[in-house]
Amino acid sequence: INPATSKNLENLETSIRPSYSLVSLQCWLNLVLDLLVSCIAIGIILIAALWRSETSAANVGVSLNLILVANATLVRLVESFTQLEVSLGAIARLNEVETQTPSEDKPSEDQVPPSSWPEKGSLTLSGFSAGYNDDHKVLRDINLSVGRGEKLVICGRTGSGKSTILLGILRLIESSGEIEIDRRLLSQVPRNIIRKRAFITVPQEPLFLPSASLSFNLDPDA
C-alpha cells in the first residue's frame, strides 16, 4: 500500500471511531437491559414456583408480558437518548461554525441597492488588479467597459487570468481598483447581493438538473 492510501485509511479509521464507540455503547446498554430483564423474569418464575398456591398462571403471564414491554420501552428510550445526544452535538458544532466563522463581507460593504438593480447591466473596470496572494498579481491595471447588450469573449492561454477576472468581479477573491455595475461600486455592495442579482455564471464542470428547465438551471432564483 502506498503512503497516500495508508494515510487515507488511517484518517478513515480515526473518523469512524466515534461512530463505532457509539454503536458499541448502544449494544452494551441493550445487553445490560436484556440481562436485567432476564434476572427479573427468572425471579418472578422462582417466586411463582415457590408460592404456587398463592399465585396463578394468569398473574405470572401478565407479569412476564409487562416485563417484556418495559424492556422494549427502555431499549427505545436508550436509543432515542443516544440519537438526541448525537443531534445536540451536531447542532452545537453548526452553531460554533456559524458564530466563529468570520463573515466575508467588510464593514464598508453595507449599501443595499434597490430591488431593480441592476437595470441596464453595464460593467466598468478601472485599474482592476487581482491575484491569489499579495506577492503575485495575475491581472494588473485592467480597464474595461461593457455596455448594455454587448457580448464580450475573453480568450487566452491557461493561467492568463480568464477565471481570475471572473472571480474578482464576483468578489470571490480580493482585488484592487474599481468595479462598477450601472455606476454603482461593487466594493460597497454586500457580496451575496452581487452574486444573486448581477451575474449568471456557468462553471467549467456545471451541475444540471435534467428534469428542470434551462432557465432554472441557469438562475434558480429567477
Automatic annotation (TrEMBL):
The chain crosses the membrane at residues 27-51. One of its GO terms (cellular component) is membrane. InterPro entries: ABC1_TM_sf (IPR036640), ABC_transporter-like_ATP-bd (IPR003439), ABC_transporter_C-like (IPR050173), P-loop_NTPase (IPR027417). Residues 98-119 are annotated as: Disordered. The keyword Membrane applies. Residues 139-212 form the ABC transporter domain. Pfam families: ABC_tran. The keyword DNA repair does not apply. One of its GO terms (molecular function) is ATPase-coupled transmembrane transporter activity. Keywords: ATP-binding, Membrane, Nucleotide-binding, Transmembrane, Transmembrane helix. This is ABC transporter domain-containing protein. It comes from Photinus pyralis (Common eastern firefly).
